[in-house]
Amino acid sequence: MRYQVAAPDLSGNEAAYVKDCLESTWISSQGRFLDEFEARLARYTGVKHAVATCNGTVALHLALAAMGLGAGDEVIVPSLTFIATANAVRYCGATPVFADSDPETGCIDPESAARLVTPRTKGIVPVHLYGHPCDMDALDLLAERHGLWIVEDAAEAIGAEHRGRRAGSLARAGMFSFFGNKTVTTGEGGAVTTDDDQLAKRLKLLRGQGMTPDRRYWHEALGFNYRMTNLAAAIGVAQMERVDELVDHRRRLAGWYHSELAGRSLLTLPGERPEVKHAYWMYSVLLPEGVDRVKVMQRLASRDVETRPYFYPAHEMPMYLDCPSDGGCPTACELSRRGLSLPSSSYLSKSDAAFVAEALLESVSERRVRRAA
Ligand SMILES: *Cc1c(COP(=O)(O)O)cnc(C)c1O
Fold it and tell me: How far is the CA of 56 from the centre of ligand 1 (A)?
């Protein structure tokens, strides 16, 4: 038995729907599964429009391009995120400006973001890290005060909620990733969600090479080919049929881990702020100070328990060394050093969680993983 961090669960109608694509020859970027996937995703998220793309990174690029982001503009992003968040800003020729993290949730700290606003700031891209929604109340206030837009990076947060509204519906636009390790997957895939009819039109235009809808081969804007295939959408429809089950399992697993680990060690367990529903894409803990994470991961791997370190702070990457950050983002750096994500796949049972938790506690308390004082 291997305890995988985030294996895809394809046990529903995925194979049948893919077979339908092959037999009908609708394998490219038109077809009934695409329409149904977008409709289901929009309904689930609670928005009018979902625009499916071939991956999450381009969904974010598409959203920012459709917002008109360009050279000379600045966008505030968290430093503690997957690199795609910052890259999408850069693809538009704009500058990512890196905010620090809230120590409790790891999400963007609104006070840090506030310190980074300049006359060139156009927007904020908060990331619901590992499935925990950001402090949208404070971010909305900040955005309103300075006339900024917000685009949610909800790549890790399908099923998460903030004050009863789903991630992806909490701002002018949101985006999801359906990469193979995400809670809902299409292999590679993504989507932009929005309530704004004009923005949705622009998103569709730019997704399809900027071609005027009623005039073939007339390209009114510099667009992209960011379309999703019907094949990927077929997997997506089957996944969306079971989205509640997939999200519920993540939350149940988090509960099992929590009851095994709470009060038993110096690990810091993930919190859930009272106004949110955490989607627990991954159940992530902070190791105690002074524990060697590499050794802990090796010990766990020797017992078939796969784990994942947190992201490195994006502002430390070579291509972003010249971009502003809030004082070097000390909290993001500390979380990045100590964070570890546990197996969160949907096949893991209560007894698997107990096994993993026990293995983790043993690995952390082993004397030889502690650095010499
Ligand atoms: C997965 C992810 C993305 C998009 O990734 P793709 O692999 O391109 O689908 C963007 N932002 C975050 C925070 C992610 O975790």
Answer: 5
Quick one: which atom of ligand 1 is closest to the CA of 55?
A: 9
Ligand 1 is surrounded, with C-beta below 6 A, by: 55-57, 81-82, 84-85, 127, 153, 155-156, 177, 179, 190
Residue-wise pLDDT tens digits, 116-142: 999 999 999 999 999 999 999 999 999
The structure's pTM equals: 0.97
Segment holding 247, helix H or strand E: helix 243-261
Q: Rounded to an integer, what distance in angstroms lies between the CA atom of residue 63 and that of residue 206?
A: 9
Q: Atom 4, ligand 1: which residue's CA is nearest?
A: 56
| DSSP codes, 91-160 | HTT-EEEEE-B-TTT-SB-HHHHHHT--TTEEEE--B-GGGPPP-HHHHHHHHHHHT-EEEEE-TT-TT-
How wide is the angle at C-alpha 24 spanned by C-alphas 19 and 30, nearest 5°?
A: 100
Nearest CA to ligand 1 atom 13: 82
- Closest ligand 1 atom to residue 56 Cα is 9
How far apart, in Å, are the Cα atoms of 317 and each of 82, 83, 203? 12, 9, 29
User: Can you tell me the distance from the alpha carbon of 362 to that of 360, in angstroms, rounded to the nearest whole number?
Assistant: 5
CA distance 304 to 359: 10
pLDDT tens profile 279-310? 999 999 999 999 999 999 999 999 999 999 99
Q: How far away, in angstroms, is 177 Cα from ligand 1 center? A: 5
- CA of 57 relative to ligand 1 center, distance in Å: 6
CA distances from 290 to 47, 284, 300, 365, 369 (A): 45, 18, 18, 11, 9
Residue 338 near residue 286 (C-beta atoms within 8 A): yes
